[in-house]
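User: Could you go from structure to sequence for me? I need the amino acid at each position, not a summary. Structure tokens:
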């Protein structure tokens, strides 16, 4: 399946990543640890730029496909990279995020679905993008989860054909390249905002294309693991009257890696592997059962994961006397 084309793409992306590391080192684009960080050493930031470069290579060599998506991603990647270097205000970032989502909606051709639907969708998509960014807090977690989701999308695409598979393969290769430097106990580089935001945008585009093609919302469960951790963390922080836009260390994966002392790569692998298993169950259910059974399955899965999440977090809080 992986021809010489993909080997060439791998080599090109590896060279681009190494070149970026030299630039980041020269211009001091680094991530310094602070009280809310889950790492303890200075690390290069922005290695996730390779996700955007993968789409750029696809766009150039595959006939300029999905132009609105590409330009939306470019705008998002540019602003996110600037934010990695000099922190931008939330207003600027949100304005760019909504503009990029507008281009995404134009590419997916959903403007005839009604303004109420579009408004709600825009808010949810911007929320997912930011949630993906907030979840990028320990070595390997963005790589592990994203690989799982991209693999699931590739599997479904073999049967549904909702997107050019080369786009998914190119992005998967870019995740492998970045993972080589990030999925290790002492990471060479972090994804940065440009990486986490870009891969979130790419996944949302592919997932949106799948949902539109099939008319089945159950595929949103491809984001279940991140979604459960994000939603419950937001609920807890709102109850404590905290600013949900400020950096923190209160996601479950952070408690597991920091307070509980579980190896960060183990935590990241478990998040990605769990999401892969959930996605495979979704694919199996969709192939064999009607919509009513799928709805019951989805609701039950969300309930089970929520209860499991709350139980694990409660045990950690009790064992380590956290508030």
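Assistant: Here is the amino acid at each position, in order:
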């Amino acid at each position: 399946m992986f021809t010489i084309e993909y080997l060439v793409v791998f080599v090109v992306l590896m060279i681009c990543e190494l070149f970026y590391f030299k630039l980041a080192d020269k211009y001091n684009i680094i991530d310094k640890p602070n009280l809310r960080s889950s790492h303890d050493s200075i690390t290069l930031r922005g290695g996730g730029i390779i996700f955007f470069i993968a789409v750029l290579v696809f766009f150039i060599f595959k006939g300029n496909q999905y132009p609105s998506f590409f330009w939306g991603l470019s705008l998002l990647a540019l602003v996110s990279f600037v934010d990695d270097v000099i922190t931008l205000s939330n207003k600027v970032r949100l304005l760019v995020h909504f503009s990029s989502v507008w281009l995404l909606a134009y590419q997916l051709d959903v403007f005839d679905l009604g303004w109420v639907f579009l408004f709600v969708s825009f808010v949810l998509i911007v929320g997912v993008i930011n949630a993906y960014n907030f979840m990028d807090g320990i070595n390997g977690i963005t790589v592990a989860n994203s690989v799982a989701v991209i693999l699931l999308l590739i599997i479904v695409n073999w049967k549904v054909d909702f997107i050019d598979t080369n786009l998914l393969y190119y992005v998967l290769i870019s995740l492998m390249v970045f993972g080589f430097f990030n999925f290790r106990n002492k990471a060479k580089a972090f994804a940065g905002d440009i990486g986490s935001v870009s891969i979130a945008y790419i996944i949302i585009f592919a997932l949106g294309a799948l949902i539109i093609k099939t008319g089945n919302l159950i595929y949103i469960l491809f984001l279940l693991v991140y979604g459960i951790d994000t939603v419950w963390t937001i609920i807890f922080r709102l109850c404590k009257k905290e600013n949900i836009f400020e950096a923190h260390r209160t996601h479950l994966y952070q408690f597991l890696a920091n307070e509980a002392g579980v190896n960060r790569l183990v935590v990241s692998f478990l998040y990605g592997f769990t999401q892969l298993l959930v996605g495979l169950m979704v694919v199996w259910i969709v192939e064999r059962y009607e919509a009513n059974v799928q709805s019951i399955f989805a609701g039950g899965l969300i309930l089970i994961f929520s209860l499991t999440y709350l139980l694990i977090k409660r045990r950690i809080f009790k064992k380590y006397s956290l508030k």
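One structural detail worth keeping in mind: The CA atoms of residues 225 and 275 lie 6 Å apart.
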